Amino acid sequence: MYYKHHVFFCTNLREDGRPCCQRFDARAMRDHAKARTKALGIAGPGGVRVNTAGCLDRCGEGPVLVVYPEGVWYSYVDQEDIDEIIDEHLVHGRPVERLKI
Fold first, then answer.
1. What does the buried/exposed string (b/e) look like for 68-97 if buried means 16 or more CB atoms within 10 Å of the residue's CB?
2. Which residues, 6 or more positions from 13, have their beta carbon under 8 angstroms from its beta carbon?
3. N or C: which end of the chain has fewer CB within 10 A?
4. Going by CATH, does the domain composed of 5-99 fall within 3.40.250.10?
5. CB 24 within 8 A of CB 74
6. CB of 46 within 8 A of CB of 4?
7. Beta bridge partners of 64
8. What is the spatial distance between Cα 69 and Cα 6, in angstroms, rounded to a whole number?
9. pTM of this structure
10. Backbone dihedral region for residue 62 (phi beyond 0: left; psi -120 to 50: alpha; all else: beta)
């Protein structure tokens, strides 16, 4: 396995007014996750890769991200939620139950 965890952030923007992740500043949250994983030294081969995804088709459930290989889906509100996902799931291997969808 090239990465221990692969994190996909939906950053889709729907122009027609339907719910979408980008209306919740998803790109900024992805950028924060990328910077934080790098700062913690867990980014890169054998560690964590944070990527942008197109529509993951779950935008109605809030801004979403999914962590593979576990296939754990999360919704989040702010950087503190992203930090909790990084600290608990990506560093310690414990999915964050309160943020799972």
1. eeeebbbbbeeeebbeebbeebbeeeebbe
2. 20, 22, 23
3. N
4. no
5. no
6. yes
7. 75
8. 7
9. 0.94
10. left
- Which residue, chain included where needed, has tokens 């994190």? 7
DSSP 5-25: EEEEEE----TTSS--GGGGT
Q: Which residues is 74 bridged to in the sheet?
A: 65, 100
pLDDT tens digits, one per residue of 48-90: 999 999 889 998 888 999 999 999 999 999 999 999 999 999 9
Q: Is 27 helix (H, G, I), strand (E, B) or coil?
A: helix
Per-domain residue ranges for the chain? 5-99
Please name the residue that has the structure tokens 């790109």: 27
